[in-house]
Design a protein that fits this description.
Pfam families: Fapy_DNA_glyco, H2TH, zf-FPG_IleRS. It contains 5 helices and 11 strands; from the N terminus they run H-E-E-E-E-E-E-E-E-E-H-H-H-H-E-E. By secondary structure, it is of the alpha+beta class. The relative contact order is 0.15.
Length: 278
């Protein structure tokens, strides 16, 4: 959390407000704001023009009129808000960038808010338009280069359970705990079934279910359970109302009426219906 739908909601919101504007100032307020691998301080972006806002999986970056890019990863609780410079300062603001338009009108800011400080910003080189830290990340299902046959074959060859396979960002990017649980419920696949024991059609169904649920979440502005995820306007997403299993331990499955179970899974929780996904 945030996962692909939340990051895409932030990306599209930023695109609406910041493309075409220049970064006039850059400030950081916490020692962990800038990723250690950043090739320069955030001030290197001052004077640059924002040409586009891009995303792959859970990674987001501002394409600048420079030979480097400004990357953001929201971690567990990161937010990128676009606000007037006169707006009150948030308690957990870790960085901010002042923006100016071509005509010099308005003094909006991009503010990076991160309560738990697991998110980060970074100045990075690019290769074919992709930042250094994203090079190893697999195509996400909404990219034109995504090849579902290749992904199915890669998952089919794995000896691990299906859930960690679809959470592996080098196999299928963008899916996190929430949408993995929801996709497996839609596909009627137990999260602990070993990939080798699934047919190619079953694996494909898991992937198409993940795509379907994430499309719906994007339309709803993502999933918000608390104040830690907001879009660029500071508004919460409302897809949590549509979740079928995630966070619903003990509630009735909407498909069969059985109680939703929760099991421990790699320092996380996994929610599923023991009847539908048995």
């Amino acid at each position: 959390m945030p996962e692909l739908p939340e990051v895409e909601t932030v990306r599209s919101g930023l695109e609406k407000y910041v493309v075409g504007k220049r970064i006039s100032t850059a400030q950081t307020f916490h020692p962990r704001t800038v990723k250690p691998g950043s090739i320069a301080p955030l001030a290197a972006a001052v004077g640059s023009k924002i040409q586009a806002v891009k995303r792959r999986g859970k990674f987001l970056w501002l394409e600048l009129d420079r030979d480097f890019t400004l990357v953001a990863h929201l971690g567990m609780s990161g937010q990128l808000l676009v606000q007037p410079a006169s707006a009150p300062i948030q308690t957990h603001m870790r960085a901010r960038f002042s923006l100016t338009s071509r005509l010099g009108r308005g003094r909006d800011e991009i503010r990076f808010i991160d309560q738990r400080t697991f998110g980060w910003l970074s100045i990075e080189e690019q290769n074919n338009g992709i930042p250094t830290c994203v090079q190893h990340i697999a195509f996400d299902p909404f990219e034109s280069e995504f090849d579902i046959k290749q992904v199915v074959a890669k998952i089919k060859s794995k000896k691990c359970a299906i859930k960690p396979a679809i959470l592996n960002q080098e196999v299928l990017s963008g899916v996190g705990n929430i949408y993995a649980d929801e996709a497996l419920w839609r596909a009627k696949i137990h999260p602990e079934i070993i990939c080798e024991d699934l047919s190619e059609d079953e694996i494909k169904k898991v992937i198409t279910s993940a795509i379907s649920v994430m499309k719906s979440a994007i339309k709803a502005g993502g999933t918000s359970f608390d104040q830690q995820y907001k879009n660029v306007n500071g508004e919460s997403g409302y897809f949590s109302r549509s979740l079928k299993v995630y966070g619903r331990e003990g509630e009735k499955c909407s498909r069969c009426g059985s109680a939703i179970h929760r099991i421990a899974f790699a320092n996380r929780s996994s929610h599923f219906c023991p009847r539908c996904q048995g």
